[in-house]
Amino acid sequence: MALHNLTIQAAHDLLRRGEVSAVELTQAALDRIDEVDPAVKAYVTVCEESALAEAAAADRRLQSGAGVTPLTGIPYGVKDCLSTIGVRTTCSSRILEDYLPPYDATVIARLRAAGAVLVGKQNMDEFGMGSSCENSAFFESHNPWDLARVPGGSSGGSAAAVAAGMGLFALGEDTGGSVRMPAGFCGVTGLKPTYGRVSRYGLIALASSFDSIGPLTHDAWDAALVLRTIAGHDPLDSTSLDAPVPAYGRCRRENLQGMRLGVPLEYFAHGIEPPVAHALRAALDHLEGLGAELHEVSLPHTDHAISIYYLILTAEASSNLARFDGVRFGLSHPLRDAGEEVDVLERYLQTRAHGFGDEVKRRIMLGTFALSAGYYDAYYLQAQRVRTLLRQDFERAFEKVDALIAPVSPTTAFRIGEKIDDPLRMYLSDVHVVAANPGGVCGLAVPCGFAAELPVGMQIIAPPLGEQVLFDVAGAYQATTDWHAARPKIDVRG
Amino acid sequence: MSDKKAGSARVIDREQVRHIAFLIRLALTEEDLELFSDQLSAIVDYFNRLAEVDVTGVEPYRQPTLPRRRLREDVVSPSLPREAFLTNAPDRQDGYVRVPVVLDVPDGA
């Protein structure tokens, strides 16, 4: 397999045996970016020089043998909402177009310490608001399986990059499906860890009670390796959990004997395209063949997950994005008007009008509406009450089963432009992924087939801190299937 | 664009959009008001289905108080260097962030 398409584990074996150097691996990723990114457009910023320097340092570490980790010398990219010291971090927004973080996010610092090599920053829907990567202020990203289609969102650049071999893994951020949904559309593995499992320090916040940073990889064991490195308590994030970090992925199950898997009726009930439903049924049969027991379960408040999610998200986002005022950092428009001082109110109004795209404007208006006097009880508070019921749905289901199996999305990747003028229809594409965030559970998307040559994703959902269960189920599935090993052929002439 | 007919009753009308946009310090054009009133109304209309859920006796979800919330020792430690912070300031002067005039100062004061 070409160097740019390896799993982390395969690359690590080659590095350890000295059959390839970290500089060669990094150069292969950079060459692949040169070759296919003009068509895929996954990266906002590529850090060629610093990546090669980090790779050379990783080679020295590998030669000395001291402090070598499974990620030493592995090239990766990150969604552009994670702060990287001295490397432009934009959230794909005009308002942060020239922002240079003065510090690293904790996850970046941990990957640096492990010797991983940062090759660049990946495109996203502006501030994570979107399901297609079309809401980037800079450009759309394209699905490597069909360049006329979206990669999903909001971590669309990250999913497209991994699928296309531009970095061996990526870090994304999942507020309501933003890792899992694009992973499904691009045929890669994407993890939303339990809220608090991974520090959010240095993540540019979208909705602070949902935001979860997680890896996009080629398989579940790679995801386990990355999680092992980035998880754990961080004194800089008071919501990060104290729970010990297990050696995720180290103990691998051969089969799924005794594993109880729930099939939530509501997730298979409506609007799933027949070829997607067919792939999911085949995956369920396969899991049963591995020894798992399948049980029908019900999550009765599923129909309300979109409303709960979007009401709470917009409320939190409207206050998180109040910091963009054109004073301390970011775009300031106009700074002067013909040399004259600009009125402070006018500066705020114009900075935010010029700095934010339409979807960001819609969402911070919705959130402000949901929190405003006269509407607070009916919208925000009602959403938080139904969120309690949604969480109880999951708690009841997990009394009977160890994990749930669901689709990632009701369709495969849709066409660029198909939903961009209808925000509500775009929101509804998140129907199967949003519940995990208000529900407090963790989830993993893995490829489980193709429909008309486009990847179909299966979602595995486990109770809080049940990440190892996700890896067990996905690991046994991927050990006996090869959907995750498929790589797209990219038509770079398009 | 939603397929709601112009002129039909909207959950969020243009004046409400204007008010909300001012609260969050966002300048909108007349065309923006029309588009957003339409789109936000369609979305809020969808959210209205939440009212159907019986929440009698159900507490709103609150993030659990963190276990063993510890306060760190109050030890002096270096903060960001001034230059690192100022790099991103749109307007600066003499090592400070320069901000627009917030209070009107009468002449000669």
Protein described:
- The complex is a heterodimer of chains A (494) and B (109).
- Chain A has 494 residues and is α/β, with parallel strands linked by helices.
- Chain A contains 15 helices and 13 strands.
- An eleven-stranded mixed β-sheet of chain A has the order 1-3-2-4-6-5-12-13-11-7-8, with helices on both faces. A two-stranded antiparallel ribbon of chain A has the order 9-10.
- The longest helix of chain A has 24 residues, at 377-400.
- Chain B has a domain at 14-52.
- Chain B contains three helices and two strands; from the N terminus they run αααββ.
- Chain B has helices spanning 14-23, 30-47, 82-86, and strands at residues 92-93, 96-97.
- Chain B has a two-stranded antiparallel sheet with strand order 1-2.
- In chain B, helix 1 packs across helix 2 (30-47).
- The longest helix of chain B is centred in the middle third of the chain and has 18 residues, at 30-47.
- Chain B is flat.
- At the A-B interface, helix 9, helix 10, helix 11, helix 12 and helix 13 of A face helix 1 and helix 2 of B.
Give the secondary structure arrangement, pairings included.
The complex is a heterodimer of chains A (494) and B (109).
Chain A: H1 8-16, H2 22-40, E1 43-46, H3 48-64, E2 75-79, H4 106-114, E3 117-122, H5 156-164, E4 169-174, H6 180-186, E5 189-192, E6 212-217, H7 220-230, E7 260-264, H8 274-289, E8 293-297, H9 305-320, E9 336-337, E10 340-341, H10 344-355, H11 358-371, H12 377-400, E11 403-407, H13 423-428, H14 436-439, E12 442-451, E13 454-462, H15 467-479
Parallel strand pairs in A: 2-3, 2-4, 7-8, 7-11
Antiparallel strand pairs in A: 1-3, 4-6, 5-6, 5-12, 9-10, 11-13, 12-13
Chain B: H1 14-23, H2 30-47, H3 82-86, E1 92-93, E2 96-97
Antiparallel strand pairs in B: 1-2
Query: Quick one: CATH class of the domain at 3-234 and 247-259 and 472-485 in chain A?
Result: Alpha Beta
Quick one: how many beta strands of chain B? 2
* Strand content bin of chain A: 5-15%
Mean pLDDT of chain B: 86
- Say which CATH homologous superfamily of the domain at 3-234 and 247-259 and 472-485 in chain A is assigned: Amidase signature (AS) domain
Shape of chain A: globular
- What is the strand tally of chain A? 13
Q: Any idea what the radius of gyration of chain B is?
A: 24 Å
Strand adjacency order, main sheet of chain A? 1-3-2-4-6-5-12-13-11-7-8
Q: Helicity range of the residues of chain A? A: 25-40%
For the biggest β-sheet of chain B, the strand order reads 1-2
Class from secondary-structure proportions of chain A: alpha/beta
